[in-house]
Specification:
The protein is an alpha/beta fold. About 45% of the residues lie in helices and about 10% in strands. It has three domains: about 20-235, Rossmann fold (3-Layer(aba) Sandwich); about 240-305, Helicase, Ruva Protein, domain 3 (Orthogonal Bundle); about 310-385, Orthogonal Bundle (Arc Repressor Mutant, subunit A), CATH 1.10.10.10. The strands form four sheets. It has a five-stranded parallel β-sheet with strand order 2-5-6-1-7, with helices on both faces. The protein has a three-stranded antiparallel β-sheet with strand order 10-12-11. Strands 3-4 form a two-stranded antiparallel ribbon. It binds adenosine-5'-diphosphate and magnesium ion.
C-alpha cells in the first residue's frame, strides 16, 4: 500500500525520488564541465540520512548515457580490511568499482574475461594483459605501487580509449569519512589523490560522506591548507524543509491523516531528515487521525525501529565508549570534563573518543563533544526514564 521507500533503500526509482531539483541541476552543471576537459571536484556533505547516496545514485542514472559513472562505496572496504585499513584496500575497492561500472555500462564493453580475472586474484606478474585496450595488472600485494598507479590512472585510460563514445568519466566516492581509519596519515593520502587528479582531464569527482561541517577531515580536504583547498567545491545537502515534508507526504502518503499540529510534531520528531521521515511515516497507522498526542506516542513506540542502525553500533561499543556517550546526554562537554565524569585521566579516553568520532556517534564542535544524532540521544534518555539505567 505504501509507496514510501524504506529508510535504508537509497537506490530510489523516479516515483520514489522526491524533489532535490536545485541540487541536481547545480551538481550536474558542475559535473558536466568534465565534457570540456576539466576535472571538477566536489565535496558533498550533509548529516547521515539526509539523502547524499540517494542523490548520487540519481545523478548516476541521469548521466550514465553520456559518461562512465563509477560509484564507489567505501563502506564496502570492510571485506578487505583485516586489522587496519590500507591504501591497497582502497585501491582494490576502487578497481573493483571501476570494473563493475564498466560491466554495467551500455557504452563500455569489457570482455567478461576481465571480470573472471578479477575474481581470480592470483595471477603472476608476467601475465600482464590488455582487454579492450584496458591494461590489466595482476592483483598481488607485492606489486602494490604499480597497482596503485595503475588503478589511479585507469579512469584516464578508459576515457582515452572511449572518447568517441563518452564525454568523460565521473567518479563518486561515497562514505569517504571511512578514510579516517587508514593506517597512515590521511593527509598524505589526500595529497596523493590530489596530485593524480591534477594531472587528469575529462574526469570528474564527488567525494561524499556523513561528515559534519565541523569534521576535521573536511578541513584536511577543503580547508585553506587542505589538500584540495581552493580547488574543491563544497556543497552541503540540507534536510527537507517543513513545506517540502508536507508536500512530500501529501503526494506519496495521502492515507496519513495528520492534523496541523500532528504534522508539525511529525516534522519536529524527524527533523526533516528523509531517512527518519520515511521510516517513521511507514510505521504510522493509515486513515486514522494523527494529532500531536498520537504522534508523540507513536514516536516513542517507533524509536527502537528507527534507530536500529545506531543501536546495533551501540551494543558493539565497549563500556568506556558507552559511558562517554551517556556523559554527553545532558549537554556537550570538553574532553577534560568527560574524563572527570568518568573519573579517569584525559589521556585515557583518547582512543575511545576517536572511535566514536569515526563511527559518527559523536562529533567535536568548538572543543566540545556532542552526540551526533539527536534522535539517538532521545532514545537513550527514554531508556533511562523507563528502565532506570542506560542499556549497557
Ligand atoms: N530525494 C529523496 N526522496 C525520497 N526519499 C529520500 C530521498 N533522499 C533520501 N531519501 C530517503 O532517505 C534515506 C536515506 O538516504 P541516504 O541517501 O542513504 O542518506 P545519506 O547517504 O545522506 O546517509 C533513503 O533510504 C530514503 O529512504
Ligand atoms: Mg550514504
Amino acid at each position: 500500500m505504501t509507496s514510501l521507500p524504506l529508510g535504508n533503500d537509497n537506490d530510489l526509482d523516479d516515483t520514489q525520488f522526491y524533489n532535490r531539483v536545485d541540487e541536481i541541476s547545480f551538481l550536474s552543471d558542475n559535473l558536466e564541465l568534465t565534457k570540456k576537459g576539466s576535472t571538477p571536484t566536489i565535496l558533498l556533505t550533509g548529516i547521515r540520512g539526509v539523502g547524499k547516496s540517494a542523490l548520487m545514485k540519481k545523478l548516476k542514472k541521469n548521466l550514465q548515457n553520456e559518461y562512465l559513472v563509477v560509484y564507489m562505496d567505501l563502506s564496502a572496504i570492510d571485506k578487505y580490511k583485516k586489522n587496519s585499513l590500507t591504501r591497497f584496500d582502497f585501491m582494490k575497492l576502487f578497481y573493483e568499482s571501476i570494473i563493475k561500472s564498466c560491466s554495467e555500462s551500455n557504452i563500455i564493453t569489457i570482455d567478461t574475461k576481465i571480470l573472471k580475472y578479477f575474481k581470480n586474484r592470483n595471477f603472476k606478474l608476467d601475465k600482464i594483459e590488455t582487454i579492450n585496450k584496458i591494461p590489466l595488472l595482476p592483483l598481488t600485494e607485492e606489486d602494490y605501487t604499480k597497482f596503485t598507479t595503475f588503478v589511479m590512472d585507469l579512469p584516464q585510460q578508459i576515457y582515452g580509449n572511449y572518447k568517441k563514445q563518452i564525454n568523460g568519466v565521473l567518479i563518486f566516492m561515497d562514505e569517504f569519512q571511512i578514510l579516517k581509519q587508514l593506517d597512515e596519515d590521511v593527509n598524505g593520502f589526500l595529497w596523493y589523490i590530489r596530485s593524480v587528479i591534477q594531472s587528469q582531464n575529462h574526469i570528474g569527482y564527488i567525494f561524499s560522506g556523513s561528515m559534519s561541517v565541523k569534521d576535521e577531515l573536511i578541513a584536511d580536504i577543503a580547508g585553506q591548507k587542505g589538500a584540495f583547498g581552493g580547488r574543491i567545491l563544497n556543497f552541503e545537502i540540507t534536510t527537507f524543509s517543513f513545506d517540502t515534508t508536507k508536500n512530500y507526504l501529501k503526494e506519496k502518503a495521502d492515507y496519513l491523516k495528520f492534523t496541523d499540529d500532528g504534522l508539525k510534531r511529525f516534522y519536529k520528531c524527524t527533523k526533516g531528515i528523509p531517512y527518519y521521515i520515511n521510516s517513521f511515516a511507514r510505521l504510522l497507522p493509515p486513515n486514522e487521525k494523527l494529532n500531536e498526542d498520537k504522534i508523540i506516542s507513536e514516536f516513542r513506540k517507533s524509536l527502537p525501529y528507527l534507530l536500529l542502525h545506531l543501536t546495533n553500533e551501540w551494543y558493539k561499543l565497549n563500556n568506556q565508549e558507552k559511558r562517554i556517550i551517556t556523559s554527553l546526554i545532558e549537554k556537550p562537554l570538553k574532553r577534560i570534563e568527560i574524563a572527570n565524569k568518568l573519573e579517569v585521566t584525559s589521556g585515557a579516553i583518547g582512543a575511545s573518543l576517536k572511535t566514536l568520532q569515526n563511527k559518527s556517534l559523536i562529533e567535536l564542535d568548538n572543543k566540545k563533544y556532542e552526540i551526533y544524532d539527536s534522535i539517538f540521544k532521545e532514545w537513550l534518555k527514554k531508556e533511562y526514564e523507563e528502565k532506570g539505567d542506560y542499556p549497557y
